[in-house]
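Team,

Forwarding the record for the chain on the shared tracking sheet. I've put the sequence and predicted structure together so nobody has to dig through attachments.
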Amino acid sequence: MADAPDVQTVETGDEFIHVRFRDPDEFDEIRTPDWAANAARDVSEGAEVRTGDRVGDDDWLVQSVLIKKNVGEEKAREQATKIVEKIES
């Protein structure tokens, strides 16, 4: 299984804990695709995944993962890392 990129920041919002892996400025476009959320459900129910497309590159990479706030920041970090490993493997 591929190694996930390092977590850059973890921020708690009203509904989600936002676990960022890559700077959004690295991407030309960012989306929250349904297929990625479907893949994330096995790890964390209700998680959302933001993917980004870099200029001049056809690969979409995980930019960040949003985990439901009730799991707590430490567990959100662990779950987000598992989700990125699953998607980018």
